[in-house]
Amino acid sequence: MNSQILLFSLTLFALVAFIIWSLFNSKSSILKLMFDMHMCYIGRIREWTGLRDGRVYLVLFAQIAAAVLLAALAYFLIQNILLMLLVGYFILKAPLWISDFKRKRRLKSIEYELPTALTVIASSLTAGVSLSVALQSYSKEISSPLASEFAHVIRLQKVGVDFETAIEEVGKRIDLIDFQLLVMTFRISKSVGGNLSETLMSLSSTIQQKLAIEGKIRSLTAQGKMQGWVMICLPALVGFALYFIQPQEMSLLTTTLYGKIVLFICLVMAYIGHKVIQKILAIDV
């Protein structure tokens, strides 16, 4: 107990000393790196909450306070610094993980909707309507993430923003290569002209073929991805089972210094193996 408190105090002292050294060392780039990390984290919270003012710092303060309180509660219940740090880390990262999950799901929905939307817009252009009217008609008739982005383009145009600036603003919000191609198509059509409806139909066909190839790749790499998750979950399940079968022997992993080192090495190796498998199976089309 005393050794754990001493270790925690030394870690906290080293962190405070490091921050003070960074503040007084003007030539060091560590302080700038910490500031950039802070601004990146604030940007992620703004994306997660939708706030654009000082209230985002209230969310950050509430998140840090909850992490500290729950981590301290976990320490008093479990009496283990490693588990306390893990609890605090997961509490801090959980909102960002949820935000990333929702963002990826939204982008995936837009990606699969894009070919159909291009076909509808191209048909409207063939019928003789303008591009702005075609986008407005699609955004009113269909309730979807892509339709809401097209509606945002129309709203920007109504307040005086030109079409190219509006579509580029939406392109910054949607981090998809396919949508960037659509933005470039609109810009080229506005500057040099051409048969936009035929171009949109060709782009729709290309995106459909790309999605079909990505679907085949996902089906072929599903077994490898499952092996990565098994490599992460199976040792943990076996460890819990052995803990209930032989609690005295397995408790050495959390009560002794060498046991903690072995447990830490096992966790790091499992995490690295999972990331390596994900990197191997991440095939970009």
From TrEMBL:
Transmembrane region(s): 6-24, 56-75, 81-98, 226-245, 257-273
Nucleotide-binding listed as a keyword: no
Topology class, membrane: Multi-pass membrane protein
UniProt keyword annotation of Transmembrane present: yes
Source organism superkingdom: Bacteria
A Pfam family reported for this protein in Swiss-Prot or TrEMBL: T2SSF
Name of the protein described by the UniProt record: Type II secretion system (T2SS), F family protein
Organism: Collimonas arenae
Upper taxonomic lineage: Bacteria, Pseudomonadati, Pseudomonadota, Betaproteobacteria, Burkholderiales
Gene this protein is translated from: tadB
